[in-house]
Every structure is written in structure tokens, then in C-alpha cells.
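Teaching note: in complex prediction, the entire set of molecules is handled at once rather than each chain in isolation. The prompt given to students was simply: 'Predict the structure of this complex.' The entities are:
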Amino acid sequence: MRRRRLVAGLLLGLLLGSSQAFACASCGSGGDDPLILYPNEVDKIYVGVARATAFKNVDADGRFSTSGGPTVKDTLTLAYGHGFSPRAFVTGTLPWLRNSRQEATQTSLGDPSLAARYALVMASMAEPLIPQVQMLVGYKQSMTHSIHDSADLKTELDVFGTGFSEAKLGVDIWFGQLDWLAGAAFNLIKPLPHTYDGLRYEPGLASRSTLTAGYVFSTACKTTFGANLLARGSLRGDGVVQADSEQLNHSAFLTQDWLISPVESWRLSLSRQAAFGANKNTARSDGVSLAYLRSW
Amino acid sequence: MQYLLRLSLCVFLCQACSTHSKADAPAVMPASTEGVASKNGTFFLKMDWTTGPKSAATSAATLSFYDANHHQAISVDSVAVVPWMTTMGHGTAMKDQKIVPVAGQVGHFTIDGIYLIMGGPWDIRVTATVNGSVDTATVAVTAP
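The expected output is the structure of the full assembly:
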């Protein structure tokens, strides 16, 4: 009986441990996709709530200035993922958003997105120094109001998106076989042009670089932290480059994962946009999120 | 007695002449005034903030239009003011803006209800019609 329990415990540890290893550098709070699937998972859901506050504008000269608009932004995110094989999976994400300013609020469904990942190189516990290498593609469809078509620019309560659909292509490298975790990800993001009020907007090509590190305290507890750099080229209006319109945002995050069973986990994340370094034409905000993940 | 009457009449007429001249002669822009020329050289614009510029709050200003060559105040048929944040590619809420000509002053307007929705550099695009020609001057301003 004792031997059976020992074997079961070892197997459970290996399973949880291997799940800890098969994460990624750009998943969770480190990048765009809140949900990733591990090789042994077929279906998985993500339910997360997040709040962003303390907004400040960062102007073209990198100076903080007054941020008009909502003072609190809440997000409920639902995501579902399906694994086709241990190497490949797709995820769909749908946010529901609430903007608040003093006593006024407005809500809206956010921009839905789809993403797919394929592991070119699978991680192996037999070779812990060989990283997992994933390719990823994604698409976000703009469906919500943005600042370009807001009906109330004084409060911006109806501004829920950027106003531009985006396609992305990226690579994610993750060393997850040891207690110390490390990884990096790089994404190219191409916004699609759109015309508002007779003016054709072409946002610049963007890149998001992510650096992540972490530590596995136990089979049930993992901490990761890292930084993102989002850089975007100049905006064009009717083909004319708008001077000084490039964007830069250095953000930081800290994430705590708790595995409460082999198929369930909780994730708490803290983040700050425009946290350090040079930032331009962006906004600083502080965020906190709590998510529940379950797989089948 | 007659001398005094003629002297009085003379003084009265001189005062009347000078008053009549003030009403008709266009104001001359002070030499130290800063302003901007319109894109096609139709006019010279001076914008003075009476309140602000503020962000996420209401500001007010005066607009003074001068001849681009002689820097004398000119008559303007219509005025439109559009604040634009070039670096981020968006405008602002304009429904409360009110442009009113200043009575008795050629080429002078007050504008109230300017609302810049966020801090940072803004281009205030002032479009005016002068003698049938439409032209635009851009005033750069930074809201805190």
C-alpha cells in the first residue's frame, strides 16, 4: 500500500513537474496570449479578471502628463484552447470590458482573437538544457470602438480597443526543465489599415520582445517575472508619416502560479505598463489579475 | 468771443476726427507679437490663451488675424478650430467650442470650450476664410 502511494506520488510529481516545465516565455502576463496548452492537454479553459488603474499619459517626449478618460478599466477574459497534438494547439480569447470614470461606467465586448502555436523543438527532461521552441501566429479582429470613432471623447468611456485588427507572428524559446526557469519571445505585429472620418490610418509595424525568468518552488508553486518591450513604428495618415508618432512601452510583470490539482491552477499577476526605461506615446497603468485555468 | 468759439469748434472737430479714425483704421500688430503664418500665406495668426491650455479640462483663448505682409488686422469671414494630437493620430471633444467675434475689433475672436482630452503636444489647426480664400494656420501647444 505504501509502495503504491509512493509510486502515485512520484507520478503525480512528474506530471505536475513536467507541466511546470512546459510553459512558455510569452504566455500568461508576459505577452498577449493568456492561455497555453501543455503537451498532455487536449482541452483547456481560462477565466480571468483584471483591473487596471493609475493611468498616466506618456507623451512624445517621454514625459508624464494628464490622462483623460476612464480611471478604472476592468476586464473579464474567457479563453478556450484545443490541442491537436503534443506539439500543436489553438486558442480563442474573448474579453468583456468595463470602463469607469467617477460614477459613470460603460461596458462592451472586447476584440476577439485567435492564436496557434507549434513546437518546433519539444522540451525533454532527459536533455534539460535544450529549450522548447515554439512558433506562433495570431489574429485579433477589431470590433469595438476606439479613440478614432468614440462618441464621447470627453470621457472616452466607450473606447475599448485600438481600432485596428492585427496579425502577429512570433517565436518563443523556453528553458523550463530545471528549478530555475528562463525564456524569451519575439513577436512581429502588423496592424491592418483602417479609415476613420475619411482619413486612412496606417499604424506602424510593431514588435514585442519578452524576457522571462522564474523559479519552481515546488511541484505546485511557480513564480515568474519579466519585462516586455513594445516598439511601434510611425503612424501614417493618408500615406503621410505623422511626425514623432512612434511608440515605446517598457512594461514589467510578476506572476504567481499555484497548481491545486493536476488539471487546475490559479494565477495571480501584477504588472505595470511604461514601468521603466524610455517610453513614448503610450500610457502608464498598474494592473492586477486573477485567473483560473482547467484542462481536460 | 468768436475766437473762443472757433477754437472750441476746432478742438471738437479734431477729437471727432481722431475717434472716427480709431473706428476705421485696422489695428497694427505689436512688433513683439509671436504668431504663425498660415500654410498658403493668406494670414498671420496670433493665439493667446486666456485660460490654460489645460488637459482634461476646458481652456479659452483669443484669436487675432493679421495680414501676412503688413501685420495689420484683417477681416475674416469664417473661423474653425480643430485641435489635433498628431503624435497619436486623434482629435478631441469639440462640441462645447464656441467662437465669437470681438465687437468693434476687426479680425479678433474669442474661443471658449477648448477641451484637450489628454496631456502632451497638440496642434491647434485654425482654418479661416479671408477674401474668399480658405487657409489654415497651425499653433503648437503642450498641455500638461
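Point out the following to students. Chain A touches chain B through 25 residues (CB under 8 Å). Residues 139 and 167 of chain A are 4 Å apart (CA to CA).
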